[in-house]
Every structure is written in C-alpha cells, then in structure tokens.
Amino acid sequence: MKKISVISxxxxxxxxxxxxxxxxxxxxxxxxFVLSLPTSFALLGGVMQGDGSDMWEQVLGVEFSFKCLMSDxxxxxxxxxxxxxxxxxxxxxxxxxxYIFNRGxxxxxxxxxxxxxxxxxxxxxxDTIYTYGLGASLRVDYDNNFFIGTEAxxxxxxxxxxxxxxxxxxxxxxxxxxxxxx
Length: 182
Prior knowledge:
Blueprint: H1 2-16, H2 22-36, E1 39-50, E2 57-67, E3 74-84, E4 88-101, E5 107-122, E6 125-141, E7 146-157, E8 160-162, E9 165-167, E10 171-181
Antiparallel strand pairs: 1-2, 1-10, 2-3, 3-4, 4-5, 5-6, 6-7, 7-10, 8-9
C-alpha cells in the first residue's frame, strides 16, 4: 500500500510540474491519436466470377478502412459485400490488411491477404463458409477528402453442400471504390 501511495504522489508531482497547462496537454494527446489513425468509408461496386464459370455477376458493398496503429505501411479494410445471382446469394464480411507500396502524396498501391466469413443461401437452405484469399488495391486521393480506388482479389472457400450445389465457391472479384477519408 505504501508503494502505491508513493508512486501516486510522484506521478501527480511530475504531472503538476509539467511546463504545459493541463488543458493544452490533453488537446495535444487527443489530436495526436486522431492523426495517427486515418480512416475512410467507401461504397463498392464490381463483379465476381466463380471458378469454372464464364459469367461475371454484380457485387455491391461498403468498406471501412484504417491505417494500422503499429505501422503506417499497413492499411486494413473491413468490407461487407453482397453477391446475388439467379440461384445463390452470398453475404460476406472480410478483413483485408494491405501492405502499402509506392506511397505517393495522393496515390497508394497495396497488396495483402483476405480473411472472411460468408452466409450462402440456395433456395431455403443456408450455410456459413470461411474465405481466404489474396488481393491488390490502388487508391487515389483528391481534394476535400474524396478518393477513388480499385481492388482485385481471388478467394478460396470452404466446400458447401446446399441442395444440388456441392463443392466450393472459389471466386475472383474486381471492385471499384468511391469514398471519403477523414
């Protein structure tokens, strides 16, 4: 108990002896945290092609992305997408951390893995599958915190058994992004 009291007294003395006012110190800490975690929100639109298929079908979604606290070289993207063709509907939530190369002032190119979970529906039957893949992205920032981008990704999936559909839902996706960063 004495150690805790002594440490508390020393810590409060050091804080009070600071050359900065308490309110400006708090503001500096808050601004530093906000600046160290840039985030963005984007609308996604694109196409998806399953393995063995010649058809590209529409994919829509949203993305929330942020830079890693440990490294400015990694941007993580949390995406929610929906794929719906005549027979199968797939709702997918995926995390896509990308290592950023060739960072320019207004352009970023990234590459990285993808990990996700998807709910697949075929008629009245449903199954939950896990996905993993590899993708690349390009993003160009404009004035007023606006950006556009594109992403290409290949995903492997766990096998499903829904009615007459058995096997995997491995797929390739090409997405366009329009968003706002803050």
